[in-house]
Amino acid sequence: KFKKILEEGKGKLVSKEYWGLRKLAYKINKNTKGHYVLMNIDAPYPALAELERVMGFDENIIRKGIFRVEEFSKEPSKLFVSVNAKDKK
User: Fold this and answer.
1) Bridge partners of 12?
2) pLDDT, position 27
3) Which of 15, 65, 82, 83 could form a disulfide with 40 if both were Cys (CB 3.0 to 4.6 A apart)?
4) CA dihedral 18, 31, 58, 76 (to 10 degrees)
5) What pLDDT is recorded for position 76?
6) Pairing of strands 12-28, 31-42
7) Which residue has the higher pLDDT, 35 or 71?
8) Cα separation of 79 and 31, whole Å?
9) What is the mean pLDDT of residues 57-69?
10) What is the pTM of this model?
11) Is there a contact between 52 and 71 (Cβ–Cβ < 8 Å)?
């Protein structure tokens, strides 16, 4: 659903990492755990604004953070590597 919004706004999803079900630092709306996902997105501002607007309506998303970076890392994040290493044990 989010990928379609980006593509309609002439953006693209560069990469996606699913970090798994993790404990939240504090309760949010009576939730103590949440699924964490990192998405690297290359899109113009209007597409990001629409994505953020749609995410605000989705009741399954309790927190989001959008950050601008100069370039994307070519390798997986350190948290993603550590999560996958635990899964293989």
Assistant:
1) 42
2) 92
3) 15
4) -10
5) 73
6) antiparallel
7) 35
8) 22
9) 86
10) 0.73
11) no
Query: Does residue 87 have a pLDDT over 80?
Result: no
Q: Could you give the C-alpha distances from 62 to 23, 26, 52, 56, 75, in angstroms and in order?
A: 13, 12, 12, 9, 27
79-82, Cβ contacts within 8 angstroms, sequence gap of 24 or more: 79/19, 80/17, 80/19, 80/38
Q: Give bridge partners of residue 22 from the DSSP assignment.
A: 34
- In angstroms, how far apart are the furthest CA atoms of the chain? 43
- Quick one: DSSP state of residue 38? E
Percent with pLDDT over 90 in the chain: 19
- CA distance linking residue 42 with residue 13, whole number of Å: 6
Distance of CA 18 to the CA centre of its chain: 8
Contact (Cβ atoms closer than 8 angstroms) between residue 66 and residue 55: no
